[in-house]
């Protein structure tokens, strides 16, 4: 009886329309990597295929990451330049130097006219990193679907980037509040900046873990020495983080954990510089190298975008306009009677799909 129906939407067509991943894997233009498509020539713009609604979107994940780090570096450098050229106040008397014992990079974000200009540029940085977090999540999801990553690892990366995104948002409070002394403004200004540093560390570390754990760096043609340098990077960056966070907490609590000395202040400044280099500069340079010199091996993410409501509308249209052809003997009245009784139910189901689209 099932074979006698002429189904306008076969199972194969339904699967191809409902699953963009299956569609990308069946496409002859997509290599064996499935969701990833090679584009050896272009590494910019970030997304191609936007002008053609029939073509999939080609997302350059590494270019998105490069753009995010570039915006962050430019924002920090702009704050430094504006502070040096236009701030008339003596930055050596900043309360943050008294708190931490050294000149933190946050000193260049606290004075006018820096506080007027940097929030607008950081808004661009925030959007860029939000785009990068979404791109990274899509890439890890594709790795999970293609059995390059375990489900638990995929959930771990998703949660870590959700935390990192929340930390990056908190930096907007740092630009809005300028510390005026040992009062609430100091904590409202400094704690979001500390959380942003935690977010930077999460992004840098998880990207290295993903590159090694999924074999992504090997597919780009990088040698085994890259893995050794990656482990060395994780160890060195971990030491910097384990020193910097307690030092920041000790400064905000008025040296409650230990009393600072000239030697500890010098070491704290060195750790501040190392954090910027390892947490921002190194990831930027690594992404720049991959984007420019490994373009022939770079895999872009292929996104097939469709409308579920439009698909359901077409499905209902096909169902409502097609009548099943049944091969029922004339003398089999019991079967014909049961099917005639079920036709009102089919009509009601079609009406419900038309109204609700699901």
Concise description?
The chain is mostly helical. The chain has twelve helices and four strands; from the N terminus they run ααβββααααααααβαα.
Gyration radius over CA: 28 Å
Number of strands: 4
Shape: globular
What is the mean predicted local confidence, pLDDT? 77
Largest pleated sheet = 4 strands, antiparallel
Write the layout of secondary structure elements.
Layout: H1 11-18, H2 20-26, E1 36-38, E2 47-48, E3 57-59, H3 61-86, H4 95-100, H5 114-145, H6 151-176, H7 184-213, H8 216-219, H9 224-252, H10 262-293, E4 299-303, H11 308-321, H12 333-356
Antiparallel strand pairs: 1-4, 2-3, 3-4
Can you give a write-up of this model?
It is a single chain. By secondary structure, this protein is mainly alpha-helical. It is 66% helix and 4% strand. It has twelve helices and four strands. It has helices spanning 11-18, 20-26, 61-86, 95-100, 114-145, 151-176, 184-213, 216-219, 224-252, 262-293, 308-321, 333-356, and strands spanning 36-38, 47-48, 57-59, 299-303. The chain has a four-stranded antiparallel beta sheet with strand order 1-4-3-2. A hairpin with an 8-residue loop joins strand 2 (47-48) and strand 3 (57-59). The radius of gyration is 28 Å and the shape is globular. The model is unreliable at 1-34 and 311-326 (pLDDT under 50).
